[in-house]
Design goal:
CATH topology of the domain at 59-200 and 276-286: Tetrahydropterin Synthase, Chain A
Strand content: 15-25%
Largest sheet: 4 strands, antiparallel
Low-confidence stretches: 49-54, 294-299, 305-309
Shape: elongated
CATH architecture of the domain at 59-200 and 276-286: 2-Layer Sandwich
Order of helices and strands: HHHHEEHHHHEEEEHHHHEH
Helix content: 40-55%
CATH class of the domain at 59-200 and 276-286: Alpha Beta
Strand order of the largest sheet: 3-2-1-5
Radius of gyration: 25 Å
């Protein structure tokens, strides 16, 4: 029996898109014959992942894991919302979210982590699931928040199962106060962030390019009024302040009461918590944001199905 090298396994994996362990098994079964190994994988239905890898994956689930002083988010995309209701897919997203607690917010590190209960990496396991479920999937991103003292609160919007849904939010609150009261307030903040989608925690953290783009747009709009430049400058400054109130978390109006600015709400919550509170960060993942969803051509799809392509 011929020796199966790592190079052979990699070559077969590149050709077929099948998982590493499946490629190794195929080569063992066929005595190292590459062509026969490809046929073996196709017979088992494990080589179809490569064909599906070009399809747009903009559906799927956001996964959330952790509580207390650390929590993680992941986004795992699929082609259709139907797959998000698949129990195997849901279980995989939950498992990957748990592994993300040790990946430091690095999606490449998470992809190379060993999947729970096996020898394959997370990336390899996803590839294997592509073959099993029959849709392209993609581990798009991950995030991690941690605190030294205090809590990382979380909220999942449109949850279809614990820790699984369409919009996931983490909020990091540093405090030596009552953890239960802090968690309750943190969840309210997380719900607020899910609703308002702020771009940054503070003005200083807002991308300068975003501010400049907004300023340019406002400037052009103001000049159409025909007012003098000095008046326009004052108009722009007022509108930029208004823009901050819309996109900077600490400047937003708290949706829970519709009146209090977030920075004042944090200060007010200190009475319940019994200690100072510092909001140190947040993460918000909305499923598919920024992805172009493929417009399906139904006639072309039927024709492709009829031709077996």
């Amino acid at each position: 029996m011929s020796t199966i090298s790592a190079t052979m396994v990699k070559e077969l994996r590149d050709q077929t898109g099948a998982g590493m362990m499946d490629c190794k098994a195929a080569l063992n079964e066929t005595g190292g014959d590459m062509e026969a190994a490809v046929d073996w994988l196709r017979t088992k239905g494990l080589a179809k992942a490569a064909k599906k890898a070009g399809r747009v994956a903009a559906e799927g689930l956001i996964g959330l894991a952790g509580e207390g002083k650390s929590a993680s988010l992941v986004e795992l995309n699929s082609e259709t919302d139907f797959v998000a209701r698949n129990e195997q897919f849901q279980s995989m997203v939950s498992d990957i979210a748990k592994l993300a607690l040790d990946a430091g917010g690095d999606v490449e590190q998470l992809g190379s982590s060993i999947y729970l209960g096996g020898d394959a990496s997370v990336s390899d396991h996803i590839t294997e699931m592509v073959g099993t479920i029959g849709e392209n999937m993609n581990l798009r991103r991950t995030a991690l928040l941690e605190v030294g003292s205090g809590v990382v609160a979380s909220y999942m919007h449109n949850a279809i199962a614990p820790g699984l849904g369409k919009i996931g939010v983490l909020v990091a609150l540093e405090s030596e106060g009552d953890a239960n009261a802090l968690s309750a307030f943190g969840k309210q903040l997380a719900m607020h962030i899910a609703a308002t989608s702020p771009l940054a925690l503070t003005e200083d953290e807002l991308d300068p390019a975003v501010i400049q783009r907004e300023r340019s747009i406002l400037m052009e709009q103001a000049r159409e009024s025909g007012k003098p430049e000095e008046i326009i400058e004052k108009m722009i400054e007022g509108r930029i302040r208004k823009y901050y109130e819309e996109v900077v978390l600490m400047k937003q109006t708290f949706v829970i009461d519709g009146e209090t600015v977030i920075e004042k709400a944090v200060k007010a919550a200190e009475a319940d918590v019994g200690a100072p509170i510092k909001l140190t960060g947040f993460k918000r993942f909305a499923l598919g944001e920024g992805l172009d969803k493929k417009e399906e051509d139904f006639a072309a799809e039927v024709a492709a199905a009829a031709s077996g392509t």
